[in-house]
Specification:
Layout lengths: L1 E6 L4 H8 L7 E3 L4 E4 L5 E7 L5 E5 L2 E3 L8 H17 L13 H7 L3 H8 L3 H18 L7 E7 L22 H17 L6 E8 L7 H14 L7 E7 L6 H10 L3 E4 L6 H7 L5 H13 L5 E7 L6 H14 L3 E6 L10 H5 L8 H14 L2 E7 L10 E6 L5 H8 L4 E4 L4 E8 L2 E11 L4 H6 L1 H11 L3
Parallel strand pairs: 1-4, 7-8, 7-15, 8-9, 9-10, 10-11, 11-12
Antiparallel strand pairs: 1-3, 2-3, 4-5, 5-6, 12-14, 13-14, 16-17
Length: about 475
């Protein structure tokens, strides 16, 4: 059992962020001034923050302190604790003591990838990746003016629930009657708010869930509503996360093409049919190829395809094989996710985080996928991380040429405002700070997660957002 005693500070969040990498989910005992990690190494540490800004972690007569340039206190706390746990466990994490979801924000502050290695103990390959991706993110972000607005339209339904998913709604096969009602509620919310929007729109993202789970009539009606009510200009990026190949029909593709959707996602997650079946997805790898070719033939030249590394029921080499198959298809974007433990997924934390022999090469296989993508002409354009991700890895979007998603970069940056429609969505306002080009103060406005409650209270949700945006 790992016990960390906090001294001279109360930054539990920073301590638990590091401790969880070395032994599971920490438990906070604020009245005792400590955290406990039941599955961690059997040792007691003292993590101290001194008045001069230095942090020292003490462990059985040893003191761990970074001797170079001081960082701000929360980072110093993470750094000294990471140094101690790395020495005690002989484990080094790919991202060192960087625990946040956006390592590229830290990378942007530095003058070279070497700075990330030296200051944060980031592994050289990850330091390089973060550094070059941070520059591409900022280049894309500058294409979205601060006064503009991005919009998210959320559909919290899927045709079935994948084993790794904890999505907020049950699979729609049990609730087909909800779809039409939900679509009508979405239309009502869009109409209520749209007439009050005075700001230009840079990007609209229709996500989920699986937006194409709607019947063709409801799907077309939602697109009609968006185009009739939102002030969509020709230069606005509009993405539909078509997602599951088993929900994409010729009619839905035609509807998207007729409305002017300029970016779609077709997400196989793996190109191994046996894995898809075991995960609960009702399509094959061949279905993915067929739908991709149909979409491409219809003129969709900006297609993103997702893969997940670390899935159960397949090994590292099979993930690399999936990457190769997508490269052969040559979509504009390929996003590589690393499996992480979602809170309510059927898949256990041990399945995700375990270091068993079959998945111990996950780190190497992800690196190989990145190499293949870069050799094929793709470059990383945005990156984020999640807690409880296998081997402490990351999610990265790769793009060919200047095809990276404006919405993805703007949303992840926390530098641009996002208005969210639908159940479970989070709207946010980002306020620039004096002297900080890419750091903003963020305020958020959440929508009820339950789709049925959202349908009943949609007017209340719309009014809440109008008040939030002061419109």
């Amino acid at each position: 059992m790992l016990e960390v005693i906090l001294k001279g500070h109360d930054k539990y969040y920073n301590v638990t962020d590091v401790a969880r990498m070395f032994g599971g989910i920490p438990e906070e005992y604020k009245e005792a001034g400590k955290i406990i990690v039941p599955d961690g190494p059997d040792i007691t540490l003292i993590n101290e923050l001194l008045e001069d800004g230095r942090s020292i972690t003490y462990a059985e007569g040893k003191a761990y302190e970074y001797k170079g340039e001081l960082l701000e206190p929360s980072r110093e706390i993470r750094r000294s604790l990471y140094m101690a746990l790395t020495d005690i466990t002989s484990k080094q994490m790919p991202w060192g003591c960087l625990t946040g979801i956006r390592p590229t924000l830290v990378a942007w502050e530095e003058e070279s990838a070497k700075d990330l290695e030296e200051k944060y103990m980031v592994r050289p390959d990850k330091a390089r990746l973060a550094y070059i991706t941070s520059r591409e993110e900022q280049r894309i972000l500058e294409k979205v003016p601060e006064e503009n607005l991005c919009i998210y339209v959320g559909i919290p339904f899927c045709p079935s629930r994948c084993e790794y998913c904890s999505f907020i709604s049950s699979d729609i096969s049990c609730h087909m009657d909800r779809l039409a009602k939900y679509e009508a509620a979405l239309e009502k919310e869009i109409r209520m708010i749209a007439s009050t929007i005075r700001r230009p729109l840079s990007a609209i993202y229709v996500g989920g869930g699986t937006p194409t789970v709607f019947e063709e009539r409801e799907f077309a009606a939602l697109l009609d509503c968006m185009y009739e009510n939102l002030k969509i200009t020709p230069d606005c990026e509009i993405t539909v996360e078509a997602g599951r190949p088993d929900t994409i029909t010729d009619g839905k593709l035609f509807s998207m093409r007729e409305h002017g959707i300029n970016r779609i996602c077709i997400n196989p997650q793996t190109m191994r049919s046996e894995t898809l079946l075991k995960l609960g997805r009702r399509h094959t790898a061949e279905d993915t190829v067929e739908v991709y070719r149909k979409a491409s033939d219809m003129g969709f030249d900006l297609i993103n395809m997702d893969l997940i590394a670390g899935l159960p029921y397949e090994n590292a080499e099979e993930h690399v094989a999936s990457t190769k198959k997508l490269i052969e298809l040559a979509p504009a974007n390929i996003t590589v996710h690393t499996l992480y433990k979602k809170r309510r997924a059927r898949m256990s934390r041990e399945q995700v985080m375990g270091l068993d022999l079959e998945r111990s090469s996950l780190d190497d296989c992800v690196a190989e996928s990145y190499r293949l993508l870069e050799d094929a002409g793709y470059h990383p354009y945005y990156m984020y991380r999640q807690k409880d991700t296998g081997h402490g890895l990351e999610n990265i979007g790769f793009a060919k040429g200047d095809t990276g998603s404006l919405y993805n970069v703007a949303m992840m940056s926390d530098c641009r405002d996002v208005l969210s429609f639908g159940a479970g969505g989070v709207s946010k306002r980002c306020f620039a700070q004096e002297g900080e080009a890419y750091k903003h103060r963020v305020e958020r406005c959440s929508t009820i997660k339950d789709a049925l409650v959202y349908i009943e209270r949609v007017e209340e949700m719309a009014e809440k957002k109008m008040s939030f945006f002061e419109i």
